[in-house]
């Protein structure tokens, strides 16, 4: 037998073996998809965690637009829509056409907000005292674009009475 | 020997990643919902008594210069601009001319809820003019009539700050760029 014939026989044998082989079940390779999904989840979790304050506008609220680009500093958020004043996910006062109900405002102080904010301030001050840090009160006003100036002044005055010295107006960046 | 090894080879089972994938796919919409759709920012404002204190470095040179006391009062019919308690464009001998604003409305016939009816361009030009004379000044006192909406207040702050002002890029200790005019607003209670 010549080497060529031997090679041909071997080739034939291999071919026959291949023909007799059972069909293997194909497995879907999920590893690459898993990698992509993991990267997306990590990215989303990171962007979720990097914001010091998570602002979620309330119903019937149109946040004013501005060209300002400064980031939101950590603080106590106070939400005011065209209908209600919300603090700690709780309705504190009702508004009519961007103005507070006169019965809740006494000499620029919004009485229900003052009470709720006072509780929160005491807790916050105790935490800062425990840490040995100086407490600096910062209020973030998330107001409606139609909110009246008098209401803004009332909120600032109420917070000011509780030693809040820093104020920020939350805006949506234009352009 | 080789055949023996092949027969006894340990079969490695592939990990079943499908349940993990399911959780991951559920996490994506949940996180997307929690994410901010629009990018939020904040305008830092101060009440009158907490006005920004001047830095030590420039305190001496500031003392020599007359304070500007730039004030913008938002009226229903325009802006009243004053410096050092003197209203711009007021009648001679009068500190304030209550009958007319310094910068009248750009669209006088527009509805009250049209926030673009104010002449923000002219106000910015006025702020630029003042900044050229008082380059060290950064504080502006903004007040308004009780009925003025928040959007008008914010747009007024944008105008006096300068439309090209970018505060996010400035690092601590760095000088503020020329484009930034009056970027430290003090919100003062108005009247009426």
TrEMBL record, chain A:
**Source organism, top-level taxon:** Bacteria
| Protein name as annotated | Uncharacterized protein
What taxonomic ancestry is recorded?
A: Bacteria, Pseudomonadati, Myxococcota, Polyangia, Nannocystales
TrEMBL record, chain B:
One Gene Ontology biological process? protein transport
Q: Name one Pfam family in it.
A: ExbD
Name any GO cellular component annotation.
plasma membrane
Keywords on record: Cell membrane, Membrane, Protein transport, Transmembrane, Transmembrane helix, Transport
Where is the protein situated, by its record's location annotation? Cell membrane
Membrane topology per the record? Answer: Single-pass membrane protein; Single-pass type II membrane protein
Major location (coarse): membrane
Tell me a Gene Ontology molecular-function term this record carries.
Answer: transmembrane transporter activity
Entry similarity comment:
Belongs to the ExbD/TolR family.
> What's the name of the protein?
Biopolymer transport protein ExbD/TolR
């Amino acid at each position: 037998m010549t080497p060529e014939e031997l090679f041909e026989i071997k080739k034939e044998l291999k071919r026959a073996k291949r023909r007799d082989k059972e069909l293997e079940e194909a497995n879907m390779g999920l590893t690459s998809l898993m990698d992509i999904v993991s990267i997306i989840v990590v990215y989303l979790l990171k962007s979720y965690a990097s914001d010091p304050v998570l602002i979620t506008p309330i119903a019937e609220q149109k946040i004013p637009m501005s060209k300002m680009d400064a980031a939101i500093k950590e603080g106590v958020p106070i939400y005011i829509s065209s209908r209600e004043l919300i603090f700690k996910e709780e309705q504190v006062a009702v508004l009519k056409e961007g103005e507070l109900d006169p019965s809740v405002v006494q000499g620029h102080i919004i009485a229900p907000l003052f009470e709720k904010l006072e509780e929160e301030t005491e807790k916050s001050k105790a935490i800062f005292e425990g840490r040995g840090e100086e407490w600096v009160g910062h209020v973030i006003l998330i107001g409606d674009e139609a909110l009246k100036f008098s209401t803004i002044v009332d909120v600032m005055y109420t917070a000011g009475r509780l030693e809040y010295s820093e104020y920020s107006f939350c805006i949506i960046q234009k352009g | 020997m080789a055949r023996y090894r092949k027969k006894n080879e340990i079969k490695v089972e592939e990990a079943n990643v499908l349940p993990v994938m399911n959780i991951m796919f559920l996490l994506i919409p949940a996180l997307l919902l929690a994410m901010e759709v629009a990018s939020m920012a904040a305008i830092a404002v101060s009440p009158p008594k907490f006005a920004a204190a001047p830095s030590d470095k420039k305190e001496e040179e500031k003392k020599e210069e007359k304070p500007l006391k730039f004030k913008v009062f938002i009226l229903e019919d325009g802006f009243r601009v004053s410096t050092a308690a003197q209203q711009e464009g007021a009648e001679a001998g009068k500190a304030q001319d209550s009958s007319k604003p310094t910068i009248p409305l750009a669209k006088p016939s527009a509805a009250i809820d049209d926030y673009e009816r104010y002449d923000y361009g002219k106000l910015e030009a006025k702020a630029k003019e003042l900044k050229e004379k008082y380059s060290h000044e950064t504080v502006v006192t903004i007040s308004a009539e009780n009925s003025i909406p928040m959007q008008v207040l914010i747009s007024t702050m944008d105008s006096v700050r300068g439309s090209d002002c970018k505060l996010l890029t400035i690092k601590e200790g760095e000088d503020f760029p020329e484009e930034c005019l009056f970027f430290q607003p003090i919100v003062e209670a108005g009247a009426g």
